[in-house]
Write a structure and sequence with these properties.
Mean pLDDT of chain A: 88
Distance between the termini of chain A: 32 Å
Number of helices of chain A: 13
Largest interface: A-B, 65 and 64 residues
CATH topology of the largest domain in chain A: Isopropylmalate Dehydrogenase
CATH class of the largest domain in chain A: Alpha Beta
Helix content of chain A: 40-55%
Oligomer: homodimer
Strand content of chain A: 15-25%
Radius of gyration of chain A: 21 Å
Structural class of chain A: alpha/beta
Number of domains of chain A: 2
CATH architecture of the largest domain in chain A: 3-Layer(aba) Sandwich
Chain lengths: 349, 349
């Protein structure tokens, strides 16, 4: 059943690259032995590292890239001057069919710009979006867009709903994901024009989509819906606010356990349970934002990720490849008719 | 030194009113014995409750209000038909000078609409904002706007910065609060037009204001700045996302401590430290959103608040009255010149 999957890895992207990338690939290979890798980057830096991981070396091809897109490069500049960069070459590999998907922990804006130019958006999608998941009381919730589109109209939001639905089916394995639209209240008249208009379109009914209605910020963590749709500005702020609060919590809890002798004793007993809790909320387990709406699979790992986090991002790429994400989203878009019609009837194609 | 302060309380606002309001006032009175209250609401419901709290009765006057603004009332409808409501009468009391400030746990939209019509915005302020604070690694951070203004231009954001500055000085007692503008990245070119333009204005320099620059969602909890400025859509989402994550965390930690016998033993030892942690993050301690930019002080308590939370909201109202918040913000606006000038020079008034 398990066909071979080739993933192109931007070996130079991320704060701790290339070491972190190779170690991440090594971890991913334990979990998914069917993977093959194209390691793209500075050959003189990667080759000696690769030598030390024979199991990875056996499943990898090394492709030299002269340039690196830096973390502070503007997307437009990266597009113009980064044609020989490791980031560009992994996307090219997907476009040319040399790889099934690409993973990079490099500059998000540059990655999105390059992926859009090289892979192009799918028919029926105006703008690609970035999606990821967050831990909730019920499991995990998909959140999109996370910053690719700072300003969105109603049409964009409806398209995000479709992409989020397909993503939840492919990566979380859900059969009937529920969709919510992020707003500042649950009443019909709340929010801005784009949100209200998208709500009306989704409420009218779109084939195959289970629309719950408006959700609020606290619904993200409570897992009220499986997919939370919003514009890139709010989505980015929600994601990072949640990350900040989680970090604060772990620091406060550390301080609480150091605050007295009794608390220290309590820690000794509670340690395994607390470690489990930390694992459950570990942001590295939820690493891997997907660029949705393109004719190809590109996964963005957190720039500050370590090897374990990068392995999670590879895992997301693996799931998207094996679960037919691209076909699924194409089918949904076709059933819907592209562009999205104002009525609830799905137009035959 | 402590002059008498009269606070008008909307005794009918909030899920657990009027009981919660009276108990909250009782708690606040222990902390601030100089307070006096105008209790506004259905006399036949309040009088018997008040009889049971003689200390509160001695410091209160009961004012009958025929109507109640319901939680689902539209602001426009509440404005038209709610002229004899408890919510309206507490705002009227502030406008007429019968009370120094008003506190309500009722419908936010209606409260904002009524306060704006009755008290009017200050000269130099186009739109009032709603502000509150969140716990951080360094103490507390003021966040505004929290939902009063779903769409904001650069001018609004600059005015929010001024109001947030005055609020941080008055309520948190900070001498030199730092201000950050919420965005999806820290680089100059990130964000939408309103955010970039406001950044340029604040960067150019406004007298008395210490502008840090752009901040991101995770900076809220890390306490990078004392005041985080954003539009009402993003602010509401950030606040509620943070609340949701905090709630998730407490549920996860409860589950972790119930997960094994060892963990249960650990809990016994660590309990006092964990209770302290819970207190530190208790949303009830951070209750009380202030309506900023009006000619009068109105504090909004969370609708689902209990007596302890309502007492915190009364505490915020108390601090704003005693620390000369209104005068401070007027002075800042005057020094700045109203409307906000494009240049960095403060116009003499």
């Amino acid at each position: 059943m398990t066909r071979e999957i080739t993933i192109a890895l931007d070996a130079m992207g991320g704060d701790k690259a290339p070491d972190m990338v190779l170690k991440g690939a090594e971890i991913a290979l334990v979990r998914y032995p069917e993977l093959r890798f194209l390691l793209v980057g500075a050959a003189d830096r990667i080759a000696p590292l690769l030598k030390r991981i024979p199991k990875l070396e056996a499943r990898s091809a090394l492709i030299h890239a002269e340039d690196v897109v830096t973390g502070d490069a503007k997307p437009s500049a990266a597009l113009r001057t980064g044609k020989r960069s490791s980031m560009r070459l992994v996307i090219d590999a997907v476009a040319e069919g040399a790889a099934d998907c690409a993973v990079s922990a490099g500059n998000s804006g540059a990655l999105m710009a390059m992926a859009k130019v090289v892979l192009k958006t799918m028919p029926g999608i105006d703008r690609p979006a970035m999606a990821s998941f967050m831990p909730t009381q019920r499991g995990e919730t998909v959140l999109l867009d996370l910053g690719a589109n700072v300003e969105c109209d109603a049409e964009n939001l409806v398209q995000f709903a479709l992409m989020g639905d397909a993503f939840a089916r492919a990566v979380l394995g859900l059969l009937k994901p529920t969709i919510g639209l992020l707003n500042v209240g649950s009443e019909e008249l709340k929010g801005n024009d784009a949100v209200r208009e998208a709500h009306a379109k989704l409420r009218a009914g779109i084939q195959g989509l289970i629309y719950h209605g408006f959700v609020e910020g606290d619904d993200i963590a409570s897992g009220t819906v499986d997919v939370v749709v919003t514009d890139g500005f709010s989505g980015n702020i929600a994601l990072k606010t949640a990350e900040g609060v989680a970090k604060l919590f772990f620091e406060f809890i550390g301080a609480a356990f150091r605050s007295s002798l009794f608390a220290r004793i309590g820690y000794v007993f509670a340690r395994p349970a607390l470690m489990q809790l930390r694992d459950r909320l570990d942001p590295r387990r939820h690493n891997g934002a997907m660029l949705l709406g393109l004719n190809g699979i590109v996964v963005k790992s957190h720039g500050g990720s370590d090897a374990l986090g990068f392995a999670s991002a590879i895992g997301v790429a693996h799931d998207l490849c094996t679960n037919g994400f691209l076909d699924r989203i194409k089918t949904e878009l076709a059933a819907l008719g592209a562009p999205v019609p104002a009525s609830s009837q799905a137009a035959p194609v």
